Amino acid sequence: MAFYSIFCCVKGSDGKNQTKKQSTWRVFSLKELHSATNNFNYDNKLGEGGFGSVYWGQLWDGSQIAVKRLKVWSNKAEMEFAVEVEVLARVRHKNLLSLRGYCAEGQERLIVYDYMPNLSLLSHLHGQHSAECRLDWNRRMKIAIGSAEGIAYLHHHATPHIIHRDVKASNVLLDSDFQARVADFGFAKFIPDGATHVTTRVKGTLGYLAPEYAMLGKASESCDVYSFGILLLELASGKKPIEKLSATTKRMITDWALHLACEKKFSELADPKLKGEYVEEELKRVVFVAIICAQNRPEKRPTMLEVVELLKGDSEEKFIAIENDEIFKNTRPADYKDGLSAGEDSSDFISDEKEVKQEVEIVKEPNEEIEKVEV
Ligand SMILES: Nc1ncnc2c1ncn2[C@@H]1O[C@H](COP(=O)(O)OP(=O)(O)OP(=O)(O)O)[C@@H](O)[C@H]1O
Ligand SMILES: [Mg+2]
């Protein structure tokens, strides 16, 4: 398998042979991971994603790890493992979750990461930590800028460039200092030099998928930009990407936010958990940038480098241009009438019956097992 050859080149950082110059990851034995996770005890389980379960563990030196134990009975998982390991082994950035090692013994395929004590952004926005309200506005801004920097690094500085393909709140982990670490490169594929996009089978999570990607399978950096826009809206508002309003009606976060942004009702856009404590200029910036990122026309979306600049407030001219964009002139702009987010009549709501019928290869509801669904 591809990853063996990669590891052969850089192996040797294990135990006594370790030297400072060598890679910081190593190969773990299954025995060591069994003992670190108390035999993959249910109590150690941090959660479950599309490709397996994640367990908390502690190594003999006291350091805490997160071990992703892949379901290996499908060839697909086998391939994802190779891809993820290859990508992670190469990429290092302060806002990307680094690989600590891996284990491939018998049927077992495991990836070892640093444990992130503040878990995922998802757990703070909608999960087990949401009641604690630990995400004040400063932290949210830091997470927005940090995760943008991590993705910008993948798009513009990693060699070859990398599309993440599954940017979402559960894949933004938070370290002890609430610094964002973008995780899970299992979906990432290398973009060949000179290619503008790679047509491939759709992988991602419902609610974050760019419409051209969901419908035509065209993966490009701008698909990540779209997903990042959804993530920004989620971060600012505390709302989920798709809200279920009734048994048959769902609302996309973009439709809801655009409507309020056009009417300049920023206080209604802010997460009520912030209790009005936010910097209005920054909130406005986040919302405008998010909507520009999550528009249906990929050619109009900014690059992640521009997103970083805009979020930091380093590009006043570009921000003024965004504020004056057509999209914010009407409450029902054309850009949000077509695509995945709305039915024919462009209401703020979409009903199940009106959703575009287009088969997507693999789509996951946030935090749910992979399933084949129609959107
Ligand atoms: N290094 C880590 N430290 C702390 N928690 C982690 C770590 N890695 C993953 N988790 C948490 O474990 C849970 C499962 O993660 P996993 O990546 O398997 O699923 P997911 O992110 O929900 O979906 P996907 O399979 O699409 O990535 C998530 O809640 C995630 O935030
Ligand atoms: Mg994940």
Automatic annotation (TrEMBL):
Keywords: ATP-binding, Kinase, Nucleotide-binding, Serine/threonine-protein kinase, Transferase
InterPro entries: Kinase-like_dom_sf (IPR011009), Prot_kinase_dom (IPR000719), Protein_kinase_ATP_BS (IPR017441), Ser-Thr/Tyr_kinase_cat_dom (IPR001245), Ser/Thr_kinase_AS (IPR008271)
Molecular function via GO: ATP binding; protein serine/threonine kinase activity
Xref: SUPFAM superfamilies: Protein kinase-like (PK-like)
Binding, ATP: 68
Transmembrane region(s): none
Residue span(s) of domain Protein kinase: 40-320
Protein family: Belongs to the protein kinase superfamily.
Lineage of the organism: Eukaryota, Viridiplantae, Streptophyta, Embryophyta, Tracheophyta
PROSITE patterns tied to this protein: PROTEIN_KINASE_ATP (PS00107), PROTEIN_KINASE_DOM (PS50011), PROTEIN_KINASE_ST (PS00108)
One Pfam family matching this protein: PK_Tyr_Ser-Thr
Name this protein carries in UniProt: Protein kinase domain-containing protein
Coiled coil regions in record: none
